[in-house]
Amino acid sequence: MAGTNSERIMLAEGPAIILVEPQLGENIGMVARAMANFGLVELRLVKPRDGWPSDKARAAASKADHVIDGAIVYDTLEEAIADLNFVYATTARSRDGFKPVRSPVTAAETLRHRFKAGEKTGILFGREKSGLSNEDVALADEIVTFPVNPAFASLNIAQAVLLMSYEWMKSSLDDVHAVPFDAPEQPMATKDELIGLFDHVEEALDARGYFHPPHKKARMVENLRAVLSRRAFTTPEIHVVRGVISSLDRFSRRGQRAPAVPVRGDEDTDTDGDASGE
Amino acid sequence: MAGTNSERIMLAEGPAIILVEPQLGENIGMVARAMANFGLVELRLVKPRDGWPSDKARAAASKADHVIDGAIVYDTLEEAIADLNFVYATTARSRDGFKPVRSPVTAAETLRHRFKAGEKTGILFGREKSGLSNEDVALADEIVTFPVNPAFASLNIAQAVLLMSYEWMKSSLDDVHAVPFDAPEQPMATKDELIGLFDHVEEALDARGYFHPPHKKARMVENLRAVLSRRAFTTPEIHVVRGVISSLDRFSRRGQRAPAVPVRGDEDTDTDGDASGE
């Protein structure tokens, strides 16, 4: 699955990101970086305040040069969206009007669906200070808003672009719980290996008088086995644990003798408790 | 539902965000802002390079002062996580070892589950240049990684914190498709209102000779009704549309006469086409 996802997310396709009158070149650069992180490339700028191209934008883009180089500047929002079929407006506050309001997940699913159907789509992001005007929003088909903390709802423009780009990427995954790489595959231990561990530990402890008093031994073994089997060991993990036991069992500390008095199980653990936990 | 969600997301609770040897105060500030956006407050800093407190951090936090003021500095990662029960390490690349790797969605669900069970949790984020070391990762329970574009995988630290904070917030929602506010509730139009619109439009057009030639009228009306009913109008929308029709029907352009020659339906539309679209 990881391989399949990797191939798919190399695609540099998806909605255009349209910044309406962005003010700071740094923000445009961070937008470009966020887009590149999630495979988007098409950046459109409506009247960037400090002009274009922008050295500050390029520096802040952290090598997302392909997005910066491909950015196109427009005089009006109408021109910037002229070739698109479907447009979302991002906004943090409720607007009067007839536009449906969608969550980022719903919006990304809709954009993916329309993308697959061959439509050209875009997402509008507003000015740093004031967001999108009602006139800007009126040009969009639907509104998307973020589930932010109402007491601290103002998202930086690059953060807003990041969240939509991230949801766009996620909408390409068959399973949002999938990961692109995983820990090295390890075979789960067999019961034979687990019982070998039990025997190893119990023999080494028995040799030290750990199971004391003798009439409690059965219960102590039961608790110990519960602890050792609480989580499913892999075969390599069993090997590591047995290596630890062997080292403790067979060798003294360097320059020290093994202790003369046996360490008993009833001295440092509550052996009447349930070691398997809750 | 919006009300319920708003109450819940006012809670300033959740995993601690732990930055391991962050370098730039600006980044710490942007992290604080991202946390505040999604209701997280507990920021821990392990050996911030440029010291603490930081004016640059405060400025970049854009008024997330409660997060900045509450930040605690530690000398070691071990101390920073000492009181926690469960810790995620964020990393963009595969690591050797036994740690399970989770998606942000899975990680947020796990954190929410453990939070509800009364556990204290945290998420580790690495240095700007080099991320988390293998020794850092070894102190975590599991790894979380982002579904980024493999060709441009490096996330800014504040962007990474934003994504995890966002998923944390989403994990509190019963439905990721829910939105905190919606367009004003409008009653859907009744069929009676829709037929009233049909009659209004058709009468106004008929008075102008639009339905020409007469033997095509039935088909033209059919197509026109398909267009008008393609999307479900609300009652206020019907009122707006009927107001438009009335204005066009009853008044001339200011200073102009109504045109002498009737505009016919067959002159500017393909009335044999299927106006209902595909």
UniProtKB/TrEMBL annotation, chains A, B:
Keyword Methyltransferase annotated: yes
Gene Ontology BP terms: tRNA nucleoside ribose methylation
Main location: cytoplasm
Cellular localisation: Cytoplasm
EC number: 2.1.1.200
InterPro entries xrefs: Alpha/beta_knot_MTases, RNA_MeTrfase_TrmJ/LasT, SpoU_MeTrfase, tRNA_m1G_MTases_N
Domain tRNA/rRNA methyltransferase SpoU type: 16-166
Acidic residues biased stretches: 267-278
Reaction(s) this enzyme catalyzes, per UniProt: uridine(32) in tRNA + S-adenosyl-L-methionine = 2'-O-methyluridine(32) in tRNA + S-adenosyl-L-homocysteine + H(+); cytidine(32) in tRNA + S-adenosyl-L-methionine = 2'-O-methylcytidine(32) in tRNA + S-adenosyl-L-homocysteine + H(+)
Enzyme class: transferase
GO cellular component: cytosol
Record has Transferase as a keyword: yes
Annotated segments matching region Disordered: 256-278
This protein's UniProt keywords: Cytoplasm, Methyltransferase, S-adenosyl-L-methionine, Transferase, tRNA processing
GO molecular function: RNA binding; tRNA (cytidine(32)-2'-O)-methyltransferase activity; tRNA (cytidine(32)/uridine(32)-2'-O)-methyltransferase activity
Pfam family, one: SpoU_methylase
Assembly with partners or alone: Homodimer.
Family of this protein: Belongs to the class IV-like SAM-binding methyltransferase superfamily. RNA methyltransferase TrmH family.
Known function: Catalyzes the formation of 2'O-methylated cytidine (Cm32) or 2'O-methylated uridine (Um32) at position 32 in tRNA.
Name recorded for this polypeptide: tRNA (cytidine/uridine-2'-O-)-methyltransferase TrmJ
Species the sequence originates in: Rhizobium glycinendophyticum
Lineage: Bacteria, Pseudomonadati, Pseudomonadota, Alphaproteobacteria, Hyphomicrobiales
